[in-house]
């Protein structure tokens, strides 16, 4: 258990950041899921529109430190590959 005031503050801060980062991660997952659902349905127009929304979300996650840059690039690359194969 934390004894010093600094350690107690770190626990409080970490709990707050965990909530914020969890919300960011969930938001990214939601956008990715929209693309995947459109791809499975075979709706290229909806998938393209969703892809335009996914890319900034992934990059925002990288900028905020929620995702690693390579992870975001890999996710976007795989989605793009599936979208181009839909044609």
TrEMBL record:
- Any single Gene Ontology cellular-component annotation: ribosome
Which key words tag this protein in UniProt? Ribonucleoprotein, Ribosomal protein, RNA-binding, rRNA-binding
HAMAP family xrefs: Ribosomal_bS20
Known function? Binds directly to 16S ribosomal RNA.
What protein family is recorded? Answer: Belongs to the bacterial ribosomal protein bS20 family.
Stored NCBIfam families:
S20 (TIGR00029)
Q: What name appears for this protein in its UniProt entry?
A: Small ribosomal subunit protein bS20
> Mind giving the lineage of the organism this protein is from?
Bacteria, Pseudomonadati, Pseudomonadota, Alphaproteobacteria, Sphingomonadales
